[in-house]
Amino acid sequence: MLHRCTVGDVMTEEVITLRPDTPFHEIASLLDANDIAAAPVIDDEGAPIGVVSASDVLRHETGMPDPQGRDGSYERAWGKARARTAGALMSSPVFTARADWTIPRAARELRRRHVKQLPVVGDHGLLTGIVSRSDLLNAFIRSDVEIRGEVERDVLGRILGLEEGTVAVEVRDGAVTLRGHVPEPRLVPVVVGLCQGVDGVVAVDAHLAAARAD
């Protein structure tokens, strides 16, 4: 099988975290100093219990609740606007990801939850990393050289067992062009499908024919 990039491949493992009693001024300083959009709040065991984002900090500074109502009840919204600690300011419950999730699954979760990052937890619910939208996008931004190498090495060689040079591979801006011969006609859609499964591939143009029998 092809190796599909996972959350564990792209997540940040060294995570800036907050505690429930972290004061507001320290939250703002940590986010700014580390140039991050959000930080998870963890309990004594290291499990995430909430997230504080730069948007939370800005709403606090203006003294106004979230105008789109994502803070929950009216009382909760105004409480966050006047919060003095991470525990009072954070969004909770926290939505998390797992390291073995595929990139599309994590992307769907980000979209469904309307968040820009997800803390990543292990089997015991403890924080192991954090993944953001930009992390997921980077997984698909691969050079043409990398894509060509994976197609030749893994798809044509390791999986299909084709001899080197049987199929010529050209990659330009993520679009793969295949030219050559395969042993049987039924392998043509197989080759195309496998190439489409390579991370970073945006299109596959196959000019393949079945090799003639001697």
From TrEMBL:
Domain called BON: residue spans: 143-212
Keyword Transit peptide: no
Keywords, ordered alphabetically: CBS domain
Domain of life: Bacteria
Keyword Metal-binding: no
Domain CBS as annotated: residue spans: 11-68, 90-147
Protein name: BON domain-containing protein
InterPro entries reported for this sequence: BON_dom, CBS_dom, CBS_dom_sf, Diverse_CBS-Domain, UCP036990_CBS_BON
Gene3D superfamilies in UniProt: CBS-domain (3.10.580.10)
